[in-house]
Amino acid sequence: MTLSGKRAVVTGGGRGIGAAVARALAGEGAAVAVTARSRDEIEGVAEGLRARGRPAHAIVCDVTDPDSVAAMAARACELLGSVDILVNNAGVARSAPFLRVTVEQWEEVHRVNATGPLLVTQAFLPGMLERGWGRIVNVASVASLRGARYITAYAASKHALLGITRCLADELAGTGVTVNSVCPGYVDTPMTDENIERIAAKTGRDAEDVRGGLEEMQPGGRLITPEEVAHAVMTFIPEAASSLQGAELVVRGGGAR
Ligand code: NDP
């Protein structure tokens, strides 16, 4: 195991990609704290890891709330000792035609997808800099790299996350701390299930039919698995990855972007 002795925090670790990332990190020997708002989900993930003999904790946190982030960071450092690895994965997706994007939707999506990673990174980065070692991975999206119909708020927030990654990467050069992004296409998670339900409800189409359509739209003809995204996240963690700085790894089964 390559990560024995390392301590990791995964935001949005209660389901989907975050849960898979937590399992991958623990599988390599890291002690892991998973955070999200739904206590039951994060407790379930932490319990599953402990059942496999891994040290794991669940800490409730809303990444949009500075006080909640500060409390989570203090608790994580108390439980783990310190934090070497941060995966900013918590996110929400909303869709609407451009003219129907409301200020509420715009702000909600930006608060979770862009302000959240900013706040959580600000909470853990000082400790990493002090120790001269750290790994931060931001779960962005192919929507960080290009636009598409009906996802203005989501794509803008994910472009912002990529902007945060690139700027911070410049500041971190030579510090021993790296920050990088993964940019998945459609992944088979509860977020995509919700998306499918929403499209089905709006269009009157059958949910299975909508899912099939999404799969066909993917270069590989299928949805990406959460484990494939977790594998991409893990690429940025080892000692040998110390020169990967400000990179984005696209995970979509075909084509660069
Ligand atoms: P899920 O909806 O399955 O999981 C999202 C996680 O984020 C949950 O644990 C949720 O927990 C947490 N979360 C949401 N809002 C907050 C908040 N305010 N504070 C703390 N935690 C929060 O999503 P996925 O696993 O699909 O997505 C994970 C990441 O991957 C997201 O950033 C998403 O944008 C990105 N992504 C997803 C793709 C996909 O196709 N699914 C494609 C590309 C990128 P809770 O609600 O309990 O707080």
What portion of residues belong to β-strands?
5-15%
Q: Considering DSSP H and I runs of 4 or more, what fraction of the residues is helical?
A: 40-55%
Radius of gyration (Å): 18 Å
The major sheet is characterized as: 7 strands, parallel
Helix and strand sequence = EHEHEHEHEHEHHHE
Identify the bound ligands.
NADPH dihydro-nicotinamide-adenine-dinucleotide phosphate
Structural class: alpha/beta
What is the strand tally? 7
Number of helices: 8
| Major sheet strand order | 3-2-1-4-5-6-7
- Give the overall form: globular
Give the averaged pLDDT, no decimals: 97
What features would you describe in this structure?
- The chain is α/β, with parallel strands linked by helices and 257 residues long.
- It has eight helices and seven strands.
- The protein has helices at residues 16-27, 39-51, 66-80, 103-131, 152-172, 190-203, 207-217, 226-235, and strands spanning 7-11, 31-36, 56-60, 85-88, 134-139, 177-184, 248-251.
- A seven-stranded parallel beta sheet has the order 3-2-1-4-5-6-7, sandwiched between helices.
- Helix 3 (66-80) runs parallel beside helix 4, helix 4 packs parallel to helix 5 and helix 6 (190-203) crosses helix 7.
- The relative contact order is 0.14.
- The mean pLDDT is 97.
- NADPH dihydro-nicotinamide-adenine-dinucleotide phosphate is lined by residues 11-12, 14-18, 36-38, 41, 61-64, 89-93, 112, 139, 141, 184, 186-187, 189-192.
